[in-house]
Write a structure and sequence with these properties.
heterodimer; A: 105 residues; mainly alpha; Helix Hairpins; B: 629 residues; 3 domains; two-stranded antiparallel ribbon
Chain lengths: 105, 629
Amino acid sequence: MPFNSQTVLIVAAILFALGLVGVLTRKNIIFILISVEIMLNAAGLAFVAAGMRWGQPDGQIMFLFVLAMAAAEVSVGLALVLQAHHQYRSLDIDQMKALKDEVPG
Amino acid sequence: MNNLIALIPAFPFLGFLLLFLIGRQLPKPFIAWIGAGTVCAAAVLVLLLGIQFLQAPPADGAYTQTLWQWLSTGHFSCAFRFRIDALSLVFVFVITFVGALIHLYSVAFMKEDRDYARFFASMNLFVFAMLVLVMADNLLLLYLGWEGVGLCSYLLIGFWYETPANCRAANKAFYITRIGDTAMAIGLFLLFKELGTLTIPDILNASPTHFQQGASNTTLIALLLLAGGMGKSAQLPLQTWLPDAMAGPSPVSALIHAATMVTAGVYLIARMHVVFQLSPLAMAATAVVGGLTLLVAGFSAMVQTDIKRILAYSTISQIGYMFLALGVGAWSAAIFHFFTHAFFKALLFLAAGVVIESLHHEHNIFRMGGLKNRLPLVFKTFLAGAAALAALPFVSSGFYSKDQILWYTWSAGGGSPVLWMLGISGALITAFYTARLVIVVFYGEMKTPVSTYPAKLMTVPLVILAVLSVVAGFVEWPHNILHLSLFSELVQKVLPATILRTGIPSEIVFQGIAILLTLTGIYSGYYLYYRNTHVIGQWQQKPAFVAVRNFFFSGWGFDRLYNTVFVKPFVWMTDLNKTDFFDQINKGLASGSRQLNRWFSYSQNGSLRWYVAGVLVGVLFILTLQLFV
């Protein structure tokens, strides 16, 4: 099968855009986390494709790093989600605005 | 003895520290012991020192003691060093001795005042600063004392600070003397620039070789120093602060504004006599300033009604005589007049203080009168002081010192008939207003009853000063009468002898004219205010007479002039800038950032998706920049 890195990069870009749109539009925190995972994987796919293109192992090593980081991030993220649910009895991101700044008079 | 001279200023300074730190907690007798005791101790020390100085003069003509190195940077070094030579000795003696008497008097005079400790603390600090001024070995230390006495003068004029007028008087004295002080500081800078040193003996040694006779830089330095002296010594045109300075308690007027501080200018010029001798213009300026001041102040003293203001104007006038003498090159005569003036003017102020207190704080001499029999001791002592002020021939110290000055204003190297005319008309006026003062206050009918009589502690200093006012002149006689010139022999160890011109009429002629005019002045005072009092009443009907009288009464309108020329334009300018333009720039910066903060606060809305969008916009922005730049 002929390898065309451009096609793979386009797929990765589409995946990344999908993830981004998910982060921007979703209200549920779980879905936001999943969208972040999709973006991470899109970045990973781009790394792998780039490694293939130059015939170097660096891209695949980077993907392993991204994977490890994503695993750590998800564990922390899910713990935060649990806490948030405990506090707010909801997973709606729009209800969590405690860090809003008071506009001075 | 060399190691003891620092103790002289140390005593009053110790007194100041004690009273300043714990004075409030101490009982009044204790405060009095510390305040007066320290100055008396200094006076005793000075007496011992003076006896030793006269019996066995030190080899180089001065006692010196170095306490520590004060400053040392680059080529400039300055030690905290005291030096007493013959000139300093005269000043130190007057400061501590008259100061001690005035402190003793104040113990009783200020008895009822609640700020007893503050009074004595300031007085002790003053004595300390004045001693530093006259004992300083270098001009920087002298300047320290110079500013120190200015500060104490300010504190003591405004001593009764609850009256706004007293605070205004204190401020006025401070501002006006500051003009002179600034000029003097510039003079010191120039002197240092020229000679590279501020040590007084070095300056006196180096000046004749470094400066040229009459060169413009010498003249400039001498004139700046003269301006410093004019401010401190209340000479024309900086004299307006002294009459208002009478707002302070009477002992303050006696010590600071008659006997010691106001003569600091005389000391400065005598100290720097080498520099002045190199500049004929500065010498002439000194003489003219003195001559004009003595007349202007004399005319003002003639018409004042406040007893202390009369004495204030007469002080200005007498210091004018000293400047006149300095200017014509009669150095020792100026110092001699300072010496006698300190006694009789301190006496007059102290006696005036007793009179004022006895009459329920009445200052107006026309509401006094007839006190001759009620306060006989005060009358006799006041008479002794007044005789010295009027220069009554032979029986008063003022005669010997003033006669010498008048003779030298014609005969000395810098003298001229015009200066002599100024001096001699001043003598006539002085005699007149002194006679007027004595007659109006002590003769005639009593207008205000005497309420209190002075305590013993107040009369004893009066008697001592009265004796001194009579006998202090006997140390120096006119040359044609008796060859006794102890005083000029003493100070001429430091100051040059007066050079006489040739072809001058005999001295006896001048003495005769001076005596005649003095007696005329006294008689006209007696005639107008005792024998034929209705003459004055007739004159007061004439508008021209009243106009002239009001002109003199206001001190020749100097206050009004300065008010229009300096104060009002300044107030007008500050009024224009009421909103303070430069503040507006800073305020604009502050309000601008506050507005930005308000705007950006809207972006901090707590919405996660909003932040993500922000990050996205930022990333896109940077990427776009990367693409196109």
